[in-house]
Structure to design on (579 residues):
């Protein structure tokens, strides 16, 4: 008997693009395209069930087995280090993690660097490698405000086009790591639903190649 | 009724004793030095420490294996077989806080032959099978992985990166890593096949054997494969997988490593391997292999939908005659469950409800 596979999609624009990719791969679910307030969408014929979750929560759903498959940005994977398999780079949602500061800022390295970020672990690792002493300021949004109001010297954040930075008179001073969306799989589900998951992954891999 | 985890502990104890393993009971505390010296061997390097009355720094045990091998004999021809059932204290992945974790396992230390290695792996499979029919045992061989990495002539830093990709089955990042290191096609192909080959031993063996080029790599693969054959011959066909993502530490593990899963528990429930390198680091000649079962994970399988059933509930009212009540209790069938309470119990079901009042015990409700 075919087992139902649960897929956690990240809410938002990226999630919709990812769903379209699943759809093109043959795993459509018509009810998801209707406008309603349902939380879970199932296509019984294809043995597949989708749900939308907050992007930063995808890895939690997958790691704890509530979802068998999930799509999460590499930023989330690096920050939360979930114990999952990372089977595919979907090659979408491409951007980069970077250090940015007010235009003209140079790190004098004479005092502790104040770093505002949504990604404390990634920031810490990045500066640990350089043996730079930093003070992490953990924010949950509007990171760009921090250097403007002198809350921090620099920020570590995701940069897509850089236009938000430019408009606020900030600039990238260093790249940390490139980011894109990854397909992650729960380690135990991959054992017990191996055939089902492998079929989905290989269809998705074809989609990535065709793009 | 015993809980799932309690049942598992009993079943495992019986199994281990059947094969001549003896119980090893240890103290909750251990000198902190032991863990500092072997920090990387621990699953999480955070340890609860305190100073004892003589000023020594002690730790709440985060791991059992180190304490056992510290005291194990190192004489040729001698083998120590022990099992344990202990609590360990470590930071759990998701919550970033200390947790008490119940762990049952065994260690086989000493002058080991291939038989002991096979016996321990077989006991791992039997342990899983005693807990649940739906289990899978993933097996890998650190000797194979380290020979391949060695033959690719990678630096320590790059080796760690490759191992990370291996653990996450991350083929895309591995390929870009190989490209960056300018490895030739043969080596890239070899590393890639370590990542992507997984599943039934027969198929993995075929695919991997083609990709491997050096003698010592093939030797390790053969060792792994014959072990899988042994397990399948025991009756575990279809439940044994070769999966090289299991291995995590080249520094301590030398031979076979394995991880067990059961359906319904979203994390590995059994984990173990051969760790000769740890003993070598401690200046010993002997070999060692062992595994641990995380029985506390089984509470996930407990059926919590049905409320606990009590046979007889007695409401004690005012002026309850104790003698009469005790006599009434004595008259009940011996194997029935009883609760004497002042008010109706919440979150429980019952078959018969009595009220003890004014020297009498009267039946007031009966559910079938």
């Amino acid at each position: 008997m075919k087992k139902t596979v649960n897929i956690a999609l990240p809410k938002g624009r990226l999630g919709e693009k990812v769903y379209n990719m699943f759809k093109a791969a043959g795993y459509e679910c018509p009810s998801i395209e209707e406008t309603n307030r349902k939380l879970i969408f199932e296509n019984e014929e294809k043995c597949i069930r989708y749900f939308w979750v907050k992007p930063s929560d995808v890895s939690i759903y997958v790691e704890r087995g509530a979802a068998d498959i999930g799509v999460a940005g590499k930023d989330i994977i690096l920050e939360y280090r979930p114990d999952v398999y990372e089977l595919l780079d979907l090659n979408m949602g491409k951007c980069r993690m970077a250090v940015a500061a007010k235009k003209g800022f140079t790190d004098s390295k004479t005092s502790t660097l104040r770093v505002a970020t949504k990604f404390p672990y990634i920031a810490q690792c990045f500066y640990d490698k350089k043996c730079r002493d930093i003070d992490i300021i953990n924010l949950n949004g509007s990171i760009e405000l921090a250097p403007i109001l002198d809350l921090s010297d620099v920020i570590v954040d995701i940069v897509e086009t850089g236009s938000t930075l430019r408009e606020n008179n900030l600039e990238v001073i260093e790249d940390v790591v490139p980011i894109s969306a990854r397909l992650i799989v729960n380690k135990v589900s991959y054992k017990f639903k191996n055939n089902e998951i492998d079929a989905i992954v290989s269809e998705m891999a074809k989609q990535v190649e065709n793009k | 009724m015993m809980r799932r985890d309690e049942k598992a502990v009993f079943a495992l104890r019986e199994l281990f004793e059947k094969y001549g393993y003896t119980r090893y009971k240890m103290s909750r505390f251990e000198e902190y030095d032991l863990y500092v010296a072997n920090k990387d061997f621990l699953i999480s390097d955070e340890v609860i420490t305190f100073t004892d009355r003589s000023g020594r720094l002690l730790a709440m045990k985060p791991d059992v294996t180190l304490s056992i091998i510290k005291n194990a004999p190192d004489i040729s021809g001698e083998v120590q077989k022990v099992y344990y059932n202990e609590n360990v204290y470590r930071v759990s992945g998701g919550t970033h806080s200390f947790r008490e974790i119940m762990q049952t396992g065994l260690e086989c230390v000493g002058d080991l032959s291939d038989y002991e290695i096979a016996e321990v792996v077989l006991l791992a499979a039997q342990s899983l099978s005693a807990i649940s029919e739906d289990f899978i045992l993933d097996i890998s061989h650190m000797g194979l992985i380290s020979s391949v990495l060695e033959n690719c002539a990678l630096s320590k830093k790059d080796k760690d990166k490759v191992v990370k990709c291996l653990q996450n089955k991350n083929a895309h990042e591995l390929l870009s890593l190989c490209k960056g290191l300018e490895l030739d096609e043969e080596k890239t192909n070899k590393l890639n096949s370590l990542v992507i080959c997984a599943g039934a031993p027969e198929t993995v063996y075929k695919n991997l054997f083609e990709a491997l080029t050096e003698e010592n790599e093939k030797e390790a693969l053969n060792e792994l494969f014959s072990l899988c054959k042994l397990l399948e011959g025991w009756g575990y066909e279809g439940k044994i997988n070769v999966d090289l993502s299991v291995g995590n530490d080249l520094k301590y593990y030398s031979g076979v490593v394995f991880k067990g899963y059961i359906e319904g528990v979203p994390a590995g429930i059994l984990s173990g391997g051969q760790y000769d390198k740890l003993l070598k680091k401690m200046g010993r000649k002997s070999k060692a292999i062992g595994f641990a079962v995380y029985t506390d994970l089984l509470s996930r399988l407990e059926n919590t939908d049905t409320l606990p059933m009590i046979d007889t509930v007695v409401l004690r009212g005012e002026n309850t005659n104790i003698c009469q009540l005790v006599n009434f209790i004595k008259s009940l069938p011996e194997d029935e469950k009883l609760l004497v309470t002042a008010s109706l119990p919440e979150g429980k079901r019952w078959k018969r409800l009595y009220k003890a009042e004014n020297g009498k015990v009267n039946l007031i409700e009966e559910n079938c």
